[in-house]
Write a structure and sequence with these properties.
Protein name: Gamma-glutamyltransferase family protein
GO molecular function, one term: transferase activity
InterPro entries: GGT-like_enzyme (IPR052896), GGT_ssub_C (IPR043137), Ntn_hydrolases_N (IPR029055)
Organism: Oceanobacillus piezotolerans
Structural class: alpha+beta
Keywords: Transferase
Helix content: 25-40%
Shape: globular
Radius of gyration: 22 Å
Oligomer: single chain
Largest sheet: 7 strands, antiparallel
Length: 536
């Protein structure tokens, strides 16, 4: 990176945040503060990440919940670790079973898209291996917010109301009544500044803490989840829950201009960001704000995306694996397809060979990149009675094509959109980064990383810079802050442009970087939401 730029062309940019003893960056102030308080009580960056993640299930239920999946990349004692906390589909589900229910595609709501939640198991696994405090201590802030309540922040209230308006039109079956009882107890979405609480969620979090998540997968909570599933026509059983365990994995990487960029391997889509960077490193970018720079970024990500849509699934089902998709030879072949005009991308054949994100760092050099999600908003609309557990709808990402590598089948992990990222250089940690938002995530990773590495922006300026998003074919969406001359120049290159006024469609990110020489932390948070960096 060229250094910290305190002057930049983006009017909403705030100054970056600095600290030495600890830092937590996420989309909700209460959750970030909870993470810092855990550090002050003697916890490390891992304890802070778990505390923040658990708090986010309470203070941002519009994006994640106890019934979510999670992934993490951990830097601990000069080594990088990856944790895949995504759950599998129920054993009894299949394409034929879904078609027998009258569906030609996987619905967004109800039991069909529900997979085994991985987040509670991920918290317990991280705590057991790396935490300094007990899980009960670490989850206490989340329990307190659920029990006593908290006032809604502006962005949270906006998306809560948006989700409620959708759910009241679509969730008409009695199976969804517990969602409305939990998240709209007054018959409407809570408003800005109103107190919302969930005593059931507090009790569930307490039981998860006291049993180290055993109750959720093999105890009383598991019985409640499976019992409600059986009673209301779901697929998840006690056996499905009991068989769940997070997996420790080796993160995958590419080297981009001297920096190693790390992602969790498939079933996650982090490989898209790596493949795009692998293609882009063959070009030189003298300036950020040129049509040529944006054009090449867009084209590289298009090529990476169509490859992922064709080839990425749970690793054991993939024909082409990470090493082949990320090879220098394959990147060179894909790079040749990028010319002066927008292309209609097609998948290649390599040679054989709603989401929350948080970043934490402590004064000892430990750092965590952590992400968890329901997939879409509040998730499936299924809330398990008496628990406050809102179940995710992650199964929407499966394919109904039985010949596809990501075809729906029992006991299988789906293609996964949520991806934590991490940056190192010369075998030293630089720091965690992430941008949430479904298929915007790898696109956000590439844009934010290039803003810092190629164009020298500090983390806050890198996050605040205008973003774009490839949608399909030659269609891209641009934020309203793109100047007209840039829009016209990209259109001249064959891009079909839509202006998106909803800032949340471009993801919400966090970055923490550490100076290897001084240990000073510098962070940035998302200006498109209620994001904050808590410092110590």
């Amino acid at each position: 990176m060229r250094g910290v730029n305190s002057i930049n062309p983006y009017p909403i940019t705030r100054q970056a945040f600095y600290a030495q003893k600890g830092m937590v960056a996420t989309s909700q102030p209460l959750a970030a503060q909870a993470g810092i308080e855990i550090m002050k009580k003697g916890g490390n960056a891992i304890d802070a990440a778990i505390a923040t993640a658990a708090c986010l299930t309470v203070v941002e239920p519009t994006s994640n919940g106890i019934g979510s999946d999670a992934f993490a990349i951990v830097w601990m004692k000069d080594k990088l670790y990856g944790l895949n906390g995504s759950g599998r589909s129920p054993k009894s589900i299949s394409i034929d079973a879904i078609k027998a229910l009258g569906y030609d595609e996987i619905p967004s709501y109800g039991w069909v898209p529900v997979t085994v939640p991985g987040a509670p198991g991920a918290w317990a696994e991280l705590s057991e291996r790396f935490g300094r405090l007990s899980l009960s201590e670490v989850l206490e802030p989340a329990i307190q917010y659920a029990e006593e309540g908290y006032p809604l922040s502006p962005t949270l209230a906006k998306y809560w109301e948006k989700a409620f308006n959708v759910y009241k039109e679509k969730l008409l079956d009695n199976v969804f009544e517990h969602w409305f009882q939990t998240f709209a107890p007054q018959g409407r979405a809570p408003k800005v500044g109103e107190i919302w609480r969930s005593p059931d969620q507090a009790e569930t979090l307490r039981e998860i803490a006291e049993t180290k998540a055993e109750s959720f997968y093999r105890g009383e909570l598991a019985k409640k989840i499976a019992g409600f599933s059986t009673k209301t026509g779901g697929f998840i059983s006690e056996e499905d829950l009991a068989n769940y365990k997070p997996d420790w994995v080796d993160p995958i990487r590419v080297n981009y201009r001297g920096y190693d960029v790390w992602e969790i391997p498939p079933n996650g889509q982090g490989i898209i960001a790596l493949q795009a960077l692998n293609i882009l490193k063959g070009f030189s970018f003298a300036e950020k704000e040129t049509a040529d720079t944006y054009h090449k970024q867009i084209e590289a990500l298009k090529l990476a995306f169509v490859d992922a849509q064709e080839h990425v699934a749970e690793d054991k089902y993939m024909k082409y694996h990470s090493g082949e998709l990320l090879s220098e030879a394959y990147a060179a072949e894909r790079r040749k397809l990028i010319g002066e005009k927008a292309i209609l991308p097609q998948a290649g054949k390599p040679l054989a060979g709603g989401t929350v994100y948080l970043a934490t760092a402590d004064g000892k050099g430990n750092m965590v990149s952590f992400i968890q999600s329901n997939y879409q908003g509040f998730g499936s609309g299924i809330v398990v009675p008496g628990t406050g557990i809102a179940l995710q709808n992650r199964g929407c990402n499966f394919s109904m094509d039985s010949n596809h590598v990501n075809a729906l089948a029992g006991e299988k992990r789906s293609y996964h959109t949520i991806i934590p990222g991490f940056l190192t250089k010369d075998n030293q940690a630089i720091g965690p980064f992430g941008v949430m938002g479904r298929f915007m995530q790898p696109q956000g990773h590439v844009q934010v990383l290039m803003n810092m590495i190629d164009f020298g922006l500090n983390p806050q300026a890198a996050l605040d810079a205008p973003r774009w998003q490839w949608i399909e074919k030659r269609t891209i969406e641009l934020e309203t802050r793109f100047p007209m001359n840039m829009i016209e120049s990209l259109a001249a290159k064959g891009h079909e442009i839509k202006i998106q006024i909803e800032a949340n469609e471009f993801g919400r990110g966090q970055v923490i970087l550490r100076d290897p020489k001084t240990g000073v932390l510098v962070g940035g948070t998302e200006s498109r939401t209620d994001g904050v960096v808590a410092t110590w």
